Amino acid sequence: MSYQHDRDLHLTYSPERGYWHFMLYIEPPAYTGGAINAGQQLDAFASRYAAEWRDRLTPCTPDALHVTLVAPDEAPQLWHPCVYDDPESPSAVARDGCVCWRAFRDPITWLPVAVHHYRTVTGNHEHWEHHTYAPLALPDGEQLTALIIDREADMVWARTDRGALHILPEKQTAGYSTGYRGSGPAELARMIEKIVASDGYDVTPGTPNRRPAETVLQWASSHAAARTQELSLRQLVLLCRTGVVA
């Protein structure tokens, strides 16, 4: 298909209508997911950036997009109470363990978030795993002021001139990574070039499938990039000009 984000598929949500302009990929009967928005799976307790994003999420009633974030046989668990709320829940294990899913929404992007709670009986092991989709753009009119490489949570974030933290926009099959020669660092390098060329206003994924400038690619592939760091727009400009960020 010929996809143009600004013209065709701008995710929209309202309490009255729900979601529209969100494209799904379906393989009956086993799989449903986002066709364009990249799925994200993260430990939202792993870093301060992930915690900042997690803390703004709001609980909500599960809807169709939440169902796309979980396995088909686990979808009913989105409606089961957590063991902390009801020890007799169908998702409770021996009144103490839990395998429930909880539904949240990002109040800025309205993207769905499904959180898997796994707790063993007696609580020897317990974790909450967050599943969501990356956006396809930053909110209209907002400028990226910092690109954040978050090694603890294995994420790349964008902060805007309004102070909001977002998952860096990403499309399916085109993820970002650092520290080695491969497609992930190349995609990040191309995104950095796009950000700099637009002065931080074009942060849409799907960069042209071309080789980025060697200086930017070398940095993204290096150990210098493979650590948690917050890079200002000025540093990204410097990177594109010189191959270094400071």
TrEMBL record:
Name recorded for this polypeptide: Uncharacterized protein
Domain of life: Bacteria
